[in-house]
């Protein structure tokens, strides 16, 4: 029988479906491609598969703009394909977690189509009139650029979109909206989904009154950032209602909430204490250490190892003492490849990837791997504008160009930190297009695929990165102290060594990363 807190010990593998495996030749990954690779994931040591959105969508933001929560995006396949994938996953002992994107919908969703025309669902979204100066209600800047507010001429009001203009925010103050979300969750759980990763879930409550954000960029009328848009006073209330109305009826369901702007374990604790209402969060503080405060990710800030220790070590130690639990992640669909970002993707790529594997897999928390991380995939060495596919990158580049800025520097920053770096196709073998597709890939394949791929690392005579990851995951399972043992940082002040211990009744483990 499965332990109630099985999720603490598990290993989760995130799949970005459009880039994982194509079986149709259209250049885009699909559900049948995922099904074909489930044995590979099982052999790797994975126990939970998390899919980035596969719902119906116009794909402005690669599926994080959903137009129908109960349909599959046609390029990914059909609902029957999804059902077959889940059935096969369950047969071989894998769970399947879906991406729940309910802070906003696509502007093509029937809910918003009704709302923008003044129909009964108008109050399902957030609307405000012009301010006294005849402008936007406040100075909030959207995550992808410009204002958070878009004018609707018919209604003579603005609607709020914290992200792209095509992603209007739902009004979680409306109990009917919350009930609609609960219905979506029940629909997928009843179909066999094993839980949810919840996209920007702490954005579902905003600061009452929608006050202006602090001015961090005087040259810009719209202030970039998370203040007032995230971490409103009702986040915990809404999630507790979610638990009461839905999750408690599915006691084995997996839950992790994405929570940018949650800056400390103390702030996170009400959302995860003893696994209620959520089991864990993705905070972003370790992902922000190379960002200039109050600016986009494309503004680099040098960082020190002690900063990373202060974030991760203190999160783990606080949660350990107070009934919280951590998520362990270094990569995902929104972050560049970690070996390129934090380590060395040149001469020392192999050993850097292995060091990061040890560091990643032995912290206190549930382990999340992103596709390709297990073979040490790296950022491409460069990007041209016509190769870009990500909305955030394209809007950043165009904003620099519009100001007659340095577009070569813009491309350099995109290569360093842009989201397309993690979205290049999975590198299966040295065949054409890395074995990802027989057609034309929707995004370019990293040029290093002939040397860095699953097949080469599976058949190599030495200890490849892939083989090393399998060893690490096996050792993690065989030594529970590496998962649930006491966590304690060693030498917080050392700028050259990241070290900590894990201790249980059997013994103590010392992990040292240089």
TrEMBL record:
What keywords are assigned to this protein?
Glycosidase, Hydrolase, Maltose metabolism
Q: Name one GO molecular function term.
A: glucan 1,4-alpha-maltotriohydrolase activity
The lineage's top-level taxon is Eukaryota
Classification via SUPFAM superfamilies = (Trans)glycosidases
Q: Does the keyword Transmembrane helix apply?
A: no
Kindly give the InterPro entries that the UniProt entry links to this protein: GH, GH13_cat_dom, O16G_dom_2
Alphabetical GO biological process terms: maltose catabolic process; sucrose catabolic process
What residue stretches are annotated with the Glycosyl hydrolase family 13 catalytic domain? 14-423
**PANTHER family, per the entry:** ALPHA-AMYLASE FAMILY MEMBER, GLYCOSYL HYDROLASE FAMILY 13 CATALYTIC DOMAIN-CONTAINING PROTEIN
Q: Which family does it belong to?
A: Belongs to the glycosyl hydrolase 13 family.
Can you name this protein? Glycosyl hydrolase family 13 catalytic domain-containing protein
